[in-house]
Amino acid sequence: MGGHDRWVIHLDMDAFYASCEQLTRPTLAHRPVLVGGAGPRGVVAGASYQARAHGIKSAMPMSQARRLLPPNGVILPPRFALYELLSTRVFDLVAQYAPVLERISLDEAFAEPPSLSGASSEQVREFGTRLREHIRAEIGLVASIGAASGKQVAKVASDLAKPDGLLVVDQGTERDFLAPLPTRVLWGIGPVAEGKLRAIGVRTLGQLTALSDADAVSTLGSVVGRDLRRLATGVDDRPVSDRAELKQVSAETTFDRDLIDLVSLRREVRDLAVHAHKRLVNAERVARTVVVKLRHTDFSTVTRSETMASPTDEFDQLAAMAERLLIDPSDFGGVRLAGVAFSGLSVPHQDPLFTLSVPVPDVSTAPTVSRAPAPVVTSTGWRPGDDVVHDEFGSGWVQGAGHGRVTVRFETRSSGPGVARTFVQEDPALRRGDPGDCLA
Ligand SMILES: [Mg+2]
Q1: Ligand 1 center to residue 308 CA distance, Å?
Q2: Secondary structure, 3-state, 17-70
Q3: Residue 245: what pLDDT?
Q4: What's the distance, CA 152 to chain centroid?
Q5: Residue 322: alpha-carbon gap to chain centroid
Q6: Residue 305 and residue 99: Cα distance in Å, rounded?
């Protein structure tokens, strides 16, 4: 397919988790809202733009975010059932415009609308405007859209369009569009690669494209170096396609020279873990199992794995586990190829506060060992953020609880800001609500 008659759309919901909360709990509509675990190891999974204005970001430790949060801010546990419900509604609507969608997370997808084949930039702009308005009117949420001749540039464009924006990159200008941007905007350039590039004076994508083949390959590795440099020029003919359920994310590499000491093997495996982790994060998944593959000088291959009681996307934990699985080459012979995979993937449903992470070493060379799931921690009584239904007052959410009392804010998407009422914890008229109730 010729690059110049193709239009790829990247649609990304703005501050999705926090926006779902603000949509269904109108009292919060203009307030700083954080979604995530409130416990000592909790992290910010979502932050409204009002919270971001105070320097709070996704993945920040909640303890740090809490210090930055102004007094009118709120911290809520995630309601993934609600986010999935709204995500389905959004992408069912988008599918009316573009039948083939490549979903990459709950709130992000690529599309290649057939109606845009051969369209002008102006026509693409009209299309994007109409789609954004439709989503806002029907679902009440804001989507930003990037459009370009390929996936990479479309994704970068939607990031730049945020918040509440649309950015169409004219065909033929991809290279100029990318040139001034920092290297890390490119998929596949993580902190390690960014650091290596910076060390040779490369900070922008324009500088990356100007590198010689030899420099690109020696800095980024042969395969990755070539791919990334091509993407940096804006050439990207990867198709948009329905993606099968993701089974694992991985990265592997063959070394120019066999590694014969544990220190250098460890360093390489950490780099591989960085790449695999980036894929995990891009896919918005958590992993339970870490797999390390080592091919020795004699071509024998050893695969070792370790499975945790509950899944995680924490880099340090995953990388440390990968390092623990390594075999010292000075004992077992040189290593010519190494790979790191994260498998047992799931969508992060659990509040980090209630996940237990117990590494289970697998000393055999069998691929995977499954263990019993983590014990379920049941909450007693009401927690802030819980959905509630009251016999008389209808649907609402727990704003605060303690000292035998619970304060409920009665409101739904269509009710406008609601009234707060306080009850005794055991009030029989109070029942647990369904996440869909608040969409009424
Ligand atoms: Mg988003």
Answers
A1: 28
A2: HHHHHHHHCHHHCCCCEEEECCCCCCEEEEECHHHHCCCCCCCCEHHHHHHHCC
A3: 60
A4: 16
A5: 21
A6: 39
- Put residue 46 in one of left, alpha, beta given phi > 0 → left and psi -120 to 50 → alpha: beta
Residues within 5 Å of ion ligand 1 by Cβ? 12-13, 16, 107
Please state whether 227 falls in left (phi above 0), alpha (psi between -120 and 50) or beta: alpha
Contact 80, 89 (CB under 8 A): no
Return d(Cα 330, Cα 16) in angstroms, integer: 49
Q: Which amino acid is at 84?
A: E
Q: What percent of the chain has pLDDT over 70?
A: 90
Cβ-contact 23, 127 below 8 angstroms? no
**Residue 12 in marked binding region:** yes
pLDDT by residue (tens digit) across 105-135?
A: 889 999 999 999 999 999 999 999 999 999 9
Amino acid at 14: D
Q: Binding site annotation covers 107? A: yes
Structural element, H or E, at residue 309: strand 301-312
pTM for this model (two decimals):
0.70
**Distance of alpha carbon 170 from alpha carbon 103, whole angstroms:** 24
What is the model's pLDDT at position 348? Answer: 64
**Beta strands 301-312 and 335-343, pairing class:** unpaired
Condensed to tens digits (0 to 9), the pLDDT of residues 246-276 reads 678 999 888 888 999 999 999 999 999 999 9
* Distances, alpha carbon 330 to alpha carbons 25, 325, 340, 362, 363, in Å: 60, 15, 20, 21, 19
Q: Is 102 a catalytic residue?
A: no
Q: How far is the CA of 15 from the centre of ligand 1 (A)?
A: 5
Q: Are 48 and 15 in contact (CB under 8 A)?
A: yes
Lowest-confidence pick of 108-122, 139-153, 247-261, 368-382: 368-382
Q: How many angstroms is it from 13 CA to the middle of ligand 1?
A: 4
Q: Which of 254, 277, 225 lies closest to 338 in space, CA to CA?
A: 254
Please, is 235 exposed, middle or buried when counting C-beta atoms within 10 Å of its C-beta (0-12, 13-18, 19+)? middle
